[in-house]
Structure formats: structure tokens, C-alpha cells
Amino acid sequence: MCGIAGILQRNTQEVDEKILKKMSDLLAHRGPDASGVMVSKNRKVGLSFRRLSIIDIGAEGNQPMRTRCSENWIVFNGEIYNFKELKKNLEAIHVFGSNSDTEVLLHLYEERGEDMLSALDGMFAFAIWDEGRKSFFCARDHMGIKPFYYFLNDQLFVFGSEIKALFAHPDVPRRMNDQSILSYLTFACVPAPQTLFLGISKLEAGECLVVSDKSIRRWRYWTPLENTKTLQEASPMCVKMLLEQAIQKQAVSDVPYGSFLSGGVDSSAISILMSHLRSEPVDVFSVGIKWLDRYNEFSYSRMVASEIGAVPHETMIGEDEFALFLEKLSWHADDPNGDPVCFPLFFLAESAKKAGIKMVQVGEGADELFAGYQSYLNAVRVWDVFWKHARFAPSLFKRLMYAFSLTGISQFLHKHQEVLYRLSHDKELFWGGAVAFTEIMRNSLVTQNLVNRASGFDPYSIIEGHNLYVSKQDSFADVLKRLTYLDYRVRLSELLLMRIDKMTMAHGLEARVPFLDRELVEYAFSLAFTEKIPSMQGKYLLKIALKDVVPQQILDRKKQGFGAPISEWLRKECWNTHFLIKVKKSFFCTEHLFQVGFVEKLFNDHLTRRSDNSFQLWNLISLVLWYDEWIR
Predict the structure, then answer these.
(1) Which of 46, 81, 121, 213 has the fewest CB neighbours in a 10 Å radius?
(2) Which backbone phi and psi does 249 adopt, to 5 degrees?
(3) Rounded Cα gap, residues 317 and 321, in angstroms
(4) Would you call 410 helix, strand, or coil by DSSP?
């Protein structure tokens, strides 16, 4: 795991090595073990690198790297889990100078070119400079575990693991993308390829890019829909086997590693199965909130740790730590998301690093693949009972139902006002598992000024595009596959995985994600929702697969979710007032992009317990903190 950056001057200018060094320094937290830069002979190309040594930790694995027999160069962030098998096949015709997965990527590119991506099993973001073709070949892994940001115009191509590295180049502007503000307010993140910065993009999960002086090509090389049109029969044994294989593959490391353990099903399964692979005890890491027991799952994490003889590490955090976190959040989250879980995750990662651990396995992805979210079950129920019939009703009837919901006469209809709004406007039912501001709320928040600045952009077009793609790839896709694919494209890759990347790499800690192993993902996508969740029981198939692995008490417990006490703290007058003043004084309110009255209502209604607006408020707070850090 590392930090990468690079430059291609597409004009007559030359690469400045001082800029490359500055890019490296800005990514130092991602790679504290080594650094390096490269400038090509014609000074048109430059690469910059920070290393976190996990595999082949000697100097032979340092980057930027080139092979002995060519002038092709690479910078690579991530891990290739099947690099030993790939190397074995390549050794007959290629000479290796290290035992690193980085060198395997270079030789594989020389052997297979752009088709190399189909052979990779891992998490990665890399850029290969092809000296013969005078072009960069760049790629982001299948699931989007590792990020790849870039700025590209007729004169310049600059890329990096984090956006801040791009700003080391004086020709990369810092300007806010008004359209992305609307996307962020909707999805609590900015879906790829956009970012909150105008002109700065990111590769989507499973996407690659070729850039030369004169041409640009960008395409999607993989989606989880590719091999899943033929529905398979659900097999708990197959799920267990694929998860065991993923954990074993992702345990490859030359440094100490452990796992995050909340005491839920997913993290418990990973910790237990990891312990089966090791002769020494597993280091497991858990976090709790001071004086708020409902956020503490220590009784469950201790049960699992005791059963497997693990070495438990527990961290308690509270409002003092929250204040410290606020000072650091926006610098690390330059591509921000509105997930308050970033707070406990930041200190969980810090505790692992302090314990001498350089790599952990985490449980992200299980809820998406096996329908663990209540929002998934609710969406399937609403679709089956109501939506699939109501969408064919006359437009007038749908509009009248929505209008009646606004009167408040029917509490049932009022409760489902957003569903009826989407129905009456002929929009999709499911917008994602982490919608911050529904369209009704967003219309109350933003002013016509922001709508005009965003040229009338509607974030719904993102949902529409992904649903259209699913229909083209698999016209028989059921409702669960459609909403899972939408979350794969938006919530999983740009919110959940980016919170993991940013908060762990803030401490130079690598996080691996076994549930997002490509084989396991493709298998899960091939199953009908009736196979995954018969009788509408969330995670049914996964729990059956793990019944001989995870203690029954863990399997039977109500899903809690990894949380943060933002709701409770924003009901304290000191925090509520502090953040209300900050948001009202922000650019978004003073420049009339947000309706101040609605902002005040959100804060006041939360403080007085009329409604829980904590998720919406945290998204506003995070956005303001981001603006103050990067734009103001």
C-alpha cells in the first residue's frame, strides 16, 4: 500500500522535479517507509512515490520501478494477491530482480498489454508509463478499493492517490464543482468520475485510462454483471469456501497484520477464519464511545476474541477525541464523504498502527453482497407489494396520491411521502443506501442560485444512468441486483471504501477487504434475491454459511452497525450552536447557495428532538469543513 503521483506534460514544458518531491511529501502519511521520484530523459514524464512496505520489504521493491529490459516505468498502490502465480508463469521469458508484486505488474503489462487486468486478483491503482507508445496506462481495481484521481487538459495530465497531491502542480486549479455539490448532498459522497473540484476526476471502480500527448481512451474493463446473467443455485458451502479462500489470499504479508473486530457477523467471521490460518494469536482491534454504552460492542468482540485466543486491543474515544478529529478530517478527506463513521474509524486505525500492525482485514462489502441492510429489505418489500404495480397507474392518480400525502391527513401516506414523490415524478424507487438529502429535502435546502450555477444538473441522472446500464447488461435483473449494483457504483466504492482508505492511510495502515474478493462478488451477484434472503431475512445465506464458524449468539444478535454518536452530541446545545454558527457563516449560506432558514430548522428540529437530522447535519458540517480547508 502506497501513495502514488505523476505528471505528463502534454505541451512544450518540462517536468519540475521539485513538484514531484512536493507531491511525494503530501502523501507521506500513506507511505512512511520509503520515497522516490523519476523524471524521463526528455523531461516530459515524472513519477512520484511513497512506500508502505508490506510485501518484499527490502529496497528491491521500491518505486518508481522499471524492468531491466525496458524503459517502461510503474507506480503502484495496493496489493496483487495472485502475484506469485503470475510470476511463475512469466519467469520462463522474463527476468525478475525482486520478489515484489509491483515488478510482476510491469512484466505482465509487457506480456499482455492492456489485457493484463483480466489476470489480476487484488486491490490496486497504478500508472504504467509505456516508453515505446509514449503513453500512460492507468487503472483502478474491480471494486474501487483504491482511489485514482487525475487532472487532464490539452497541456497536462497529473494524477495521484489523493487530490492534495495534484495541487502541488501550479497549473492544477482549486475550484469548486457546483454540480458535484448537489451530488454530494444527495449521496453523501460524489460518485465517480466527478469530484467536488472542477476539472479533477477519478477513475470509476473497474475502469482504466490511456493518456498520451495526443489521445485519451477511457473504458470499463469489468463489472460484477459480466458473468452473472445465468442465475446459480445458492450454496452456503460455496460462500464459506470462497470467503475462506479470500481471507487466505489476502493474508499474504511480510509484516504483522490483524483485523478490525466490532463483534458483528462480518468482522467476527474474518477474525475467526483468520485465526484458523495462523499459529500465533490474531491481533484484533475494537473501538467504543465513552459514556454511551449503546455504541459499545465490547461484550461481543471480547466473546469472539476469547474464543479464538486473540490479542484484543480496545480504544475508548469521546468528545475530546472528536474535537481533535475535526481539526484533521478535511485534510485527509479531500474527496469528502458525509459518513460520521470516519470518526471512530480514524482512531481505530491509529490504535492498530500504535500496536505495530501495518495491515488489517475489514468487513466492508458483506451487507451489500448478502442484503444485510434494512434499507435493502424495505426496498424489496415496497417494490413487491406496491411499486411494481403502482408505477403503471395513470399519472394523474400518482400525482394526487403525492399531493394527498402533503396534507398530513393520512399519517401512513405522509410517512411515505418521498416514495410517492418519486412515483409521481416517474423516478426510480431506490436511490442508494446512504441518501443524505432526499429530493424533497434538497429542494428545501438549496437556492435557485445554486441550481443556476449547476446549470440545472439533476443528481438523479446518475441513478438513471446506472439503472439503464443494468438493463442493457441483464434485462432480467431482479430488484435486489439492481439496487446492489447501484450501491456498488456509488455508496460502496465512493463512500464506504473511501472512508476506509482515507482514515486508515492517514496512519499508514493498509486495509484489505476479503468480502470484496472478485470471485465472491461475482458469485453473490449471480444469485436471485429469493436465494439470498428467503422469507426476507437479511444476510440469510451468509449466516447459514457461517453457522459452524461464528458463535450463534453473534449470528442471532440484532444488526447494530458501526456507528458514531453524532446524533447525541448534536443534541447538546454547545455542539449544536457551534456547528449552526459555522454553517451559517460559511460560503454556502453567505453566498445564498443554501436557504438559511431551512438550515436553522434542521439544527433546531434535531436539538428539540422533533426529528433526527444528524446524518443531514453531519453532511453539511463535513462540506463546510472541506470548503474551508481547500477552497477558501
Answers:
(1) 213
(2) -60, -40
(3) 6
(4) coil
Nearest to 336 by CA among 499, 148, 537: 499
Residue 33: DSSP 8-state: S
Indicate the helix (H) or strand (E) that contains 579.
helix 573-584
- For the question of whether the overall pTM of this predicted structure is more than 0.85, the answer is yes
Question: Which ranges in 333-447 belong to alpha helices (H)?
Answer: 342-354, 366-369, 374-382, 388-390, 395-407, 411-415, 417-424, 439-445
> Which conformational region is residue 256 in: left (phi greater than 0), alpha (psi within -120 to 50 degrees), or beta?
beta
What pLDDT, in 10s, does the model give residues 145-158? Answer: 999 999 999 999 99
Residue-wise burial string across 373-390, b where 16 or more C-beta atoms lie within 10 A, e elsewhere: bebbbebbebbeeebeeb
The predicted structure's pLDDT at residue 91: 84
Cell numbers at residue 353, please? Answer: 498502527
Radius of gyration of the chain (CA): 24
Q: Which helix (H) or strand (E) holds 258?
A: strand 257-260
**SS3 (DSSP) at 475:** coil
* pLDDT given for residue 1 in this prediction: 64
Query: Which has the closest alpha carbon to 106: 78, 75, 134?
Result: 75
- Phi-psi bin for 206: left (phi > 0), alpha (psi -120 to 50), beta? left
The 3-state DSSP composition of the chain as helix, strand, coil percent (nearest 5) reads 50, 15, 35
Helix, strand or coil, per DSSP, at residue 433? coil
Q: CA quadruple 455, 458, 459, 461: dihedral positive or negative?
A: negative
Instruction: Judge whether 204 and 344 are in contact, CB under 8 Å.
Output: no
Beta strand pairing call for 135-140 and 359-361 = unpaired
Residue type, 364: E
* Distance of alpha carbon 310 from alpha carbon 258, whole angstroms: 10
Place of cell 447538546: 572
Task: Identify the H or E element spanning 66.
Answer: strand 65-66
Q: Please write the tens of the pLDDT for every residue from 19-71.
A: 999 999 999 999 988 899 999 999 999 999 998 877 767 677 778 999 877 78
**What single string gives the DSSP state of each residue in 499-539?**
HHHHHHHTTT-EEE-GGG-HHHHHHHHTS-HHHHSGGG-TT
Instruction: Report in angstroms the alpha-carbon separations of 484 from 128, 242, 255.
Output: 32, 19, 35
Rounded Cα–Cα distance for residues 295 and 339 (Å) = 16
DSSP H or E run through 325: helix 319-332
Confirm if 534 and 578 have CB atoms less than 8 A apart: no
pLDDT at 350 > cutoff 70? yes
600: helix, strand or coil: helix
Q: Quick one: CA dihedral 171, 172, 176, 177, positive or negative?
A: positive
User: Is the distance from CB of 405 to CB of 424 less than 8 angstroms?
Assistant: no
